[in-house]
Structure formats: C-alpha cells, structure tokens
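Input/output pair, single chain:
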Amino acid sequence: MASAVERFDNKARETFESWGQTTVYRGELLRHPVYTRALHWMVALFFFLALFSGFGIYLPWLFRWFTPIFGGGQLSRTMHPWFGVAFVFFFALQALNWLKPMAWTPADTNWMRGMKKIVSGEEKMDPPETGFFNAGQKVQFWEIVIGCVVYLITGIVMWAGAGTFGRISVAISYVLHDISALIMLGGIFIHIYESTFGQPGTFQAMIRGAVSEAWAWTFHPAWYKEVTGRDARQACEEERRRMTGE
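Output:
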C-alpha cells in the first residue's frame, strides 16, 4: 500500500503535469517532471530573496545597496522572515518529493571514496552503480534539510525576540543562523558550478525536464540502465563506434 507521502506526491505530480508540459525528444530521457522543476525554482527564488534581504540586514555597511530592492531597510526586515518561511516550505515539499532517491546507499559511500577522480575529471564516467542522484547531490540535499531546521528554529527565536526567549537564546540564534546561511551559500555555489560547467547538460534538466542519453550514461549510469534497460558503458561504446564509423 502506498504511504500518505507517496499518495500526496503522486497527486501533486498529476496536478502539475496537467498545468505544464515536458517534451522529450529522440535521444533524450525524462529527468524532472513539471512538479519537480516548479518546486526547484520556487526554492531558488525564495532562497535568494531571503539571502539578499538578509545581507542588507546583517551587513548593512557592505550590502546596504540591497535594501532599496526590497523597499528600504524596514521593509527588508519585515519581508526577510517571510522569504525564509517560503523557502523552508517549498524545500519541505521538495524533500518529500525526493525522499526515496535521496536515501544513502553503499554505492554512495563508494562514490565518496572515488570523489577526487570524479571531480578532477580523471574518471570520465561516474561509477556504474550511481543512481538518480550521486553522493555529492545527496550530501547537499541533507545539508539543506539540516539548514532548514536550523533556519526555522533560530528564525522563530529571533522573530519572537528576547522578550520571549531571552537575550542569550537570541544571540546564539543569530550566530547559528548566519553560520548555516554561509554553509548553504557555499553549497549553492558548488551546485551552480556543477549544474553548468561541471556537468554540461545538467541545467536543461531543470529547464526542459529532459536530458540526453549521453548525459545520463555518463553521470548516472545505474539510473540510465533502470530507465532504458541498457548497460551505460556498452551504450557509450556503441555510440562511439557509430560516431567514428568503426
């Protein structure tokens, strides 16, 4: 029997698919449906709104030029926590959406052991057991999950103020809130790099929802085999021979 989460997720997917469209051309595979893409961009939108409004609040001497974007310093302070709540909300939906594929497996442990060769480009293809998400993506996912919990708790403490939680709790919350934001910002920089220059073809997965088969067998061989029934390395070799005329 499907769990409540699965029933909710399936219903959400069906609803969003009725609103949008994903075109998959020959030689491509469906990677992210409309629902996943919509959540991704809502998470991204509210993350950067919270980030930029937060910069103007916590470092006004350096980022005061951000505050006019949000209507001034007072409105930035008012909107910042709401941006944060929206970010946590939409990421929570994405977390439910990706709960199963983000589970850690022995294959992820092996991926981490060979991460240096993968990141450096010494290994041209990810390990054969790499599924829908690799270990690096899973690490970032769970880092954001933990970050959202920290944001939510510390944000509530700061929002309610010293009159409710005391000055020490508020002071500690400011520090934890800022540290979590910096860690997440670093992860976002890595994410942007990997989705563009690090793994060419990844960005279109969140724009169009589809990826090339070559992308799939290169970066997610086990997922490629699951979807197509073909061995990734064999498919790569067959395509090489076709292209070279061997």
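Residues 121 and 242 are 24 Å apart (CA to CA). The mean pLDDT is 90.
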